[in-house]
Structures are given as structure tokens and as C-alpha cells.
């Protein structure tokens, strides 16, 4: 099929408009806390830390876009204006103080503009505020065990809930678990992680957290979910053959729902093991 120049132009314009619309649309179909088809941006933020991460990401994107366009324009200028044909007798200039000062100072200012918000974000992530609730997450081959040492001292295993064929449920693929972590909304939750066998990593994109769960070492991070809902994450450290099958699901509920859940969970998980970190499990999955 032959297209006229006008048709090609219109088609290109159509692509450009579609790409632009895609870039600025907040992925209207995307549900908070889980990936969406064709998503290419960060997941929507559900915590102040993730809001900061998203802001910082966009800030860096703006900076690198400006730098890239500037360098591109310099390259094009050089190619067009200073080739042998259009500029047969080149200038013999070797120094220009103003330009040399500028190309030293401007990058320094750009780096300061990156460093200041970067350190602010780093402190926000690493400086744990006073926690309202602590959860211990133990990574195992290949599931998570969660303990609530503050609220009734119970713990439970959390395993992939839907099978690969997806005949059993309509939750997002490979993300649903049988026992979700439940936390209250607008409360500071401290997450302590440790590995029972190999290194795992506890990551929930919407919360902006990703922390290694290392055998013999207790790591900690925190989040404060500001919206109720279910937020999904995955183990993010290659930890063996079922690495892809140990998702994380955090259900954020109101204070009252949380209190009700704690009471129910205490009974439900009463018979469960009591000290996650003392036991060394050999990597066997519990009987399902
Ligand atoms: Cu893992």
C-alpha cells in the first residue's frame, strides 16, 4: 500500500498524539497496589516515601531530558556548522575562560540539585519514625512467614494462593497469597526482615520499600500506608527455583477492622509456631 506524504504525516501525527496521551495519562485503568497492562511508569504511591520516590524520579527524568536535548542540539550544531564544507578554515581557539567556568559550575549546580533531594529521601527512608506496629517477615524457600510480636504474638505462613492456570481466582497473576499481611491505615509499620535459608527481598512497589531478608541479620524498614486497599509485592532477590512464586500481599484496613482481624488471627493462628527467628527451617514447604 502506497501512502502519500500527507497520509504518512497524518499517521505520524496520530502516533505522536497517542504516545503523548499515553505518557501523560495516569493509567486510568491501573488499580493502586498492583501492576497494570502496558504500565511503564512507577506504581501509584500509597505512602509518603513512595510519593517522594515518584517525585524524585520525575525530577531526574526532567533533568536528564534537558541535558540530553542540550547535548543533542550541540552535536547537531557542530555537524551542520563546523563541517569541512561549510567551515573550511577552522578557528584556532584553544581557551575560553567564560565557557570553561560555565562548564565546571553548571554541572556542579546540577549535581547539588540532585544530591539535596536525594539525601532528603534517603533519610526519610532510613530514619525510622516511632512505630505503631511491628511485623517480622521471614523469607523462606519459597514463601513468607509473618509474625506480629506486638499484637498477641501470633505468626502465620503466607503462600501463593492462585495456581498458574488461574482457574481458582481472579486476583492479579502470581500475586495473591492465602494469608495476607493486615495493617491499619495511617499507622507507621516497622517491617523487620530476615532470611531463614537464603537471601530473599521484601518489596512492595506502592509503598516504596525493598529490603533484603538475609539469614543471620535482622534488617528493617518502614511504611505508612495512607490509603486502604490491597497492595502486592514480590520477593525481589533471586532465591531459588520458586523465587517467582512467593508474592507479598498487604491489606490496609481501618483501625477497627484491624483490631477485629487481630482477634480473629490470634485464634486462627494460635497453634502456629511461636518463634520464627529461632527456628532454622530446612526450606521445606509446609503441608498445604
Ligand atoms: Cu525469595
Comma- or semicolon-separated keywords:
288 residues; alpha+beta; five-stranded mixed sheet; elongated; binds copper (II) ion
Please explain how this structure is put together.
The chain has 288 residues and is an alpha+beta fold. Helices cover 34% and strands 20% of the residues. The chain is built from four helices and ten strands. It has helices spanning 5-24, 48-81, 97-126, 255-268; strands spanning 133-140, 143-148, 154-158, 181-184, 189-195, 200-204, 209-213, 219-223, 229-235, 247-253. The strands form two sheets. Strands 3-2-1-5-8 form a five-stranded mixed β-sheet, with no helix packed on it. Strands 4-10-9-6-7 form a five-stranded mixed β-sheet. β1 (133-140) and β2 (143-148) form a beta hairpin. α2 (48-81) runs antiparallel to α3 (97-126). The chain is elongated, with a radius of gyration of 26 Å. The termini are far apart. Residues 275-288 have low confidence and may be disordered. Copper (II) ion binds at residues 139, 200, 235, 237, 239, 243, 246.
Quick rundown:
By secondary structure, the chain is α+β, with helices and mostly antiparallel strands.
- Strand fraction equals 15-25%
Rounded mean pLDDT score: 86
Q: Helical proportion?
A: 25-40%
Biggest beta sheet attributes? 5 strands, mixed
Q: Compute the CA-based radius of gyration.
A: 26 Å
Distance between the termini: 59 Å
Shape: elongated
Distinct small-molecule ligands in the complex:
copper (II) ion
Q: What is the count of β-strands?
A: 10
Element pattern in H and E: HHHEEEEEEEEEEH
Structural class: alpha+beta
The quaternary structure here is single chain
Strand line-up across the major sheet? 3-2-1-5-8
pLDDT below 50 for ≥5 consecutive residues: which ranges? 275-288
Helix count, DSSP H or I runs of 4 or more residues: 4
Amino acid at each position: 500500500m502506497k501512502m502519500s506524504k500527507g497520509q504518512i504525516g497524518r499517521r505520524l501525527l496520530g502516533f505522536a498524539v497517542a504516545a503523548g496521551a499515553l505518557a501523560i495519562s495516569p493509567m486510568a485503568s491501573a488499580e493502586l497496589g498492583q501492576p497494570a497492562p502496558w504500565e511503564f511508569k512507577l506504581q501509584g504511591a500509597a505512602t509518603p516515601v513512595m510519593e517522594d520516590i515518584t517525585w524524585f524520579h520525575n525530577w531526574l527524568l526532567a533533568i536528564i531530558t534537558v541535558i540530553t536535548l542540550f547535548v543533542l542540539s550541540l552535536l547537531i550544531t557542530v555537524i551542520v556548522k563546523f563541517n569541512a564544507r561549510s567551515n573550511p578554515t577552522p578557528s584556532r581557539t584553544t581557551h575560553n575562560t567564560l565557557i570553561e567556568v560555565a562548564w565546571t559550575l553548571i554541572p556542579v549546580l546540577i549535581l547539588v540539585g540532585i544530591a539535596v533531594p536525594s539525601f532528603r529521601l534517603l533519610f526519610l527512608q532510613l530514619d525510622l519514625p516511632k512505630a505503631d506496629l511491628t511485623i517480622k517477615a521471614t523469607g523462606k524457600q519459597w514463601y513468607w512467614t509473618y509474625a506480629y510480636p506486638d499484637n498477641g504474638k501470633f505468626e502465620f505462613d503466607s503462600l501463593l494462593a492462585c495456581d498458574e492456570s488461574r482457574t481458582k481466582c481472579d486476583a492479579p497473576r502470581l500475586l495473591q497469597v492465602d494469608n495476607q499481611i493486615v495493617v491499619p491505615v495511617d499507622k507507621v509499620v516497622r517491617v523487620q526482615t530476615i532470611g531463614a535459608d537464603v537471601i530473599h527481598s521484601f518489596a512492595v512497589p506502592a509503598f516504596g520499600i525493598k529490603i533484603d531478608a538475609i539469614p543471620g541479620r535482622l534488617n528493617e524498614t518502614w511504611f505508612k500506608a495512607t490509603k486502604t486497599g490491597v497492595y502486592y509485592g514480590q520477593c525481589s532477590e533471586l532465591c531459588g527455583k520458586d523465587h517467582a512464586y512467593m508474592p507479598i500481599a498487604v491489606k490496609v484496613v481501618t483501625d477497627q477492622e484491624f483490631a477485629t482481624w487481630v482477634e480473629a488471627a490470634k485464634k486462627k493462628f494460635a497453634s502456629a509456631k511461636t518463634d520464627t527467628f529461632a527456628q532454622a527451617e530446612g526450606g521445606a514447604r509446609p503441608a498445604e
